Amino acid sequence: MWYSKAMPSRNVIKFYDTDSYYHIYNRGVNRRRIFIDEHDYKYFLMLLQRYLGKNTNVDDRKRRYPNYNGEVDLIAFCLMPNHFHLMIAQNDSIKAMESFMRSLVTSYTKYFNKRHRRIGHLFQGPYKASKITNEPYLLHISRYIHLNPKEYKSWPYSSWPYYTRGWMVDWVKQHKVFELFEGGDYEKFVEDYKPEKEVLDALYKLIANSK
């Protein structure tokens, strides 16, 4: 199982464990935007559905896209103008999460470069994956992800509505958080952390600007 005393890494993970949870994140090269408009956000969400939904999708030539349903579960997500956060559960295959992320990032980069008439890398190096090592940390990461937008309750490109408004799709597995939450008030759980997160964000910004 995914319980461990090891501290999570904030760097690129070189290997992944089965039955484990990870916080995955990446930003645009030189902190540039990776989502310019609504169409970009929706295309990224479509890719999540393509690779993690139960239905198999095909391209214009009837070739099947890779599908990782059952091997990789998406627990929570948030797409921001210049970065994204995903909470992922890797189930059986050790290579599944790595293959899924390669498919996702490669497909989105190709789309973005073609649509916006650019070339080169879109993301700032390989994605980062921090292993989630216990239940309290998993719950904390879920609310950290949802609190990324300042107006997080109305931000349209996160899994917040799946946690608070009853939205359901087969490629978002929010029940894996609720199973650990034991019937508590998730919305209040997130709201209670907002002041602390704002202080930490201000501190990180101050440190970054002082370098």
Summarize the structure.
With 211 residues, this protein is α+β, with helices and mostly antiparallel strands. It has helices spanning 38-52, 96-115, 135-146, 160-164, 175-181, 186-210, and strands at residues 20-27, 72-80, 83-90, 128-132.
Number of helices: 6
Provide the succession of SSEs.
EHEEHEHHHH
| Gap between N and C termini | 41 Å
Overall mean pLDDT stands at 87
Counting helices, strands and paired strands, the structural category is alpha+beta
Radius of gyration, CA atoms, in whole angstroms: 17 Å
What shape does the CA trace take?
Answer: globular
Main beta sheet? 4 strands, antiparallel
Strand sequence of the main sheet, in spatial order? 2-3-1-4
Strand content: 5-15%
- According to DSSP, the number of beta strands is 4
The helix fraction, in percent, is: 25-40%
Low-confidence stretches: 1-11
Give structural notes.
With 211 residues, this protein is an alpha+beta fold. Helices cover 40% and strands 14% of the residues. It contains 6 helices and 4 strands; from the N terminus they run E-H-E-E-H-E-H-H-H-H. A 4-stranded antiparallel beta sheet has the order 2-3-1-4. Helix 1 packs antiparallel against helix 2.
SSE order and pairing:
Layout: E1 20-27, H1 38-52, E2 72-80, E3 83-90, H2 96-115, E4 128-132, H3 135-146, H4 160-164, H5 175-181, H6 186-210
Antiparallel strand pairs: 1-3, 1-4, 2-3
Provide key terms for this protein.
four-stranded antiparallel beta sheet; 6 helices; globular; disordered N terminus
